[in-house]
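User: Structure please.
Assistant: Input sequence and predicted structure:
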Amino acid sequence: MKKDLSKMGIEEAIVTIGAYISITDLIECFDDEKKANEFMENEGNLNEQAILQFIKNNQRYFNMNKFFFINYLVISGKKPIEGYDLTGKVSGRQEKIKMLEEYLEKHPAIIVNTNYTKLQSEVYDSRDYSSLEQRKKHMAEIKKGLERIKKIDSKMEFQSFLMIQILTDLERVYCKVPDLGDGMRSNIIINTHRNDEGMTKEKLVELLNKRIISGKSFVEYLPYFEEELMKNAEYIDWDKFLILSAYRARSVLERTKHDEYPKSNQEILIGIMQVALEEIENTKAKISGKFEIMSGGLEEVKYSVKDIEKDLKEKVVDGKYYGKAEIDKLREDLLSGKIRISDIYSKKILQLLNLNKKQKEECMNQSHENAIDLYRNGFITEEEFKNYLSSTTFEKQAVMTIANLKKDEGEPVVTDKELLELYLKGNIELESIKEIERVRKIITETELIENYKKLKKCTPEEKKKIERYFSIYREVKISGKSDEEKNQIGNDIILELGDDMQEEDFIELYTRNIITLETIVDWNTEEFALKMFKKGQLKPTDSKKLLNSGKVDINKIKAGLLNGLSDEEKLSTIITMFDDEGSENIREELFQTLRISEERPETQNKSNNRTMGSISKPRGNEYELDPCYKFQLLAQIDRDYRSKLTRDGHMIFELPNLNKVIIEKMFKRTKSGISNANGAATYILDLDTLNSEDIVTVEETTNRSKLYELAKQGKVIRSYHTKNWGDAIKEIFDIEHSSRHTEEDKKKIDDIIDKTKRTRKLRTI
């Protein structure tokens, strides 16, 4: 009966064939390293029976295929034991060879033998000896392995893949026979150093035992690396080789910044990943385990075909790979303000930044462009975008961009009412909102009147919004209209208010530039207008109209018309009515009639009261600007200005069309009456700031300490009275590019500035 080794127990099979292999080879048959070491440690004390018993006891760790294959090679003389001839000493030699060939045909085995004479590892494959069919199968695998190398090389130089490998990858990852991988690594190291100057066999053995790459650049190892892979192509799991190559390339790309790494190198690494993805045959292939890294040590790795595909799809943009190092740099530059969202032109890159909520807010706070780009790319919701809009102020260009933002269906992102609300809350300036036609269309008399009716019973915050509605109404409905058209608008508003209209309503609407003096006269009388004049309630331009029409007698003013006014009202009336050069004599004459005391009795501090007869010594010199030219320049910024003189000599110019306020120290009180004030800076601020910061005290004085503090915070502009004071004011309000001012207006402003400079003089104080 023909004997079949595959059907025998381990003891019977070993006894049938015999153990002709060396102890070293026998040790190699144990796949478990611990068992191999245990056998090696006890081998000297074991006889044949004990050895057989040890193998039986540990048969699950014992590789019978390898054992039979080594025996076959020794018995057949294909791998003779050095110094020992078995010829004629093996009983039943041919029968045993036949039995082993039949066994190995069904159970192929591979062994790696180190030739210590040649210092080379050699591989033996049972398929080359068992049968023609197995030999053909082996040859087919060799051919396929070489073809895969050739195909990879046709797309990208094969050595590019080797450049990013670590030699330990051979046995750890992609060599199907770990022993062979270890041998291949030994061959690469030995062959690379074999011809080094002064190299001996002993040194090579020492180098081999250390299992290290020493004293050479990795490039010098590549020829032998490639040679080993070509020689053993059938034993390489090429899918794992490619996945590992992609992973190694990715690792380099992840830790490099674009500006610190040559573009050509990056293109090669990306190419490796792309070729790997194309050439992997098993789409479910993956690598996992602890792998050696370039800098030393081990890292836990899990990487698959899907991971390569994902990295290429998400991280490669226009031929560049955006790894962790580059993304961290971009994120840092973005949050520090060095770059904007628009500089990161790809949505894919923005996704890689993975900005959290706080970081998105930081980006938006840097610029409205960032906020818009985050919204457009879907990184913030519409609600988040609108919350941002309501917490920020915008310049004109930003407003136009925001107003033109469209949803996918074509509807504006920010509706007309929402834009108007942003203006009313102070996020958008009048100069910007007035340019948006769709917002202009929703400004109506009905809404104006509703706002006006709320004025008497509203919170300070509501009052600010109402005042801003008045401003946009004036800009949209009244500005640029003829006197006749303005009168008609006023009549329509009064008719709409109907019986609710009181005298104070006429005055209130007039001071807000909603109705004109002509409208007031039409509905009341000229006497009503004269009463307003006497109380200092008329705008300067209307006061001049009354004076020029002869309805207010200048001699009566001189004789005592001003006597019914407070000192502040007198000053305001004189300076606003007689501010031109032709009125200089009248102005000076009226000033001389005002003998305002140094301090008001009700506010005097007796402990600090000076003796009236004491004479102050001169304190030095200061430059003086003509107060009327100062007044003319500030008033020219907005012809619909309203002015108020505080008890401490500050003129507060409210510019309703600009929602701005100018605070100018015009006069100071002295023992001899009133003197021009020039030492205090001019302050320019928003109307909202004036109303919310308690700048004008309850005693009707100006809190300059508060203004100084706000200026340091950047909430208020401060301008000093140098020779170029007028030029500075012109620049602050950008008169040069203002569409509100005609060329004639601009020329007049330039003339006033010139006169301010010419009349500036030095005086003793």
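The longest helix spans residues 132-155.
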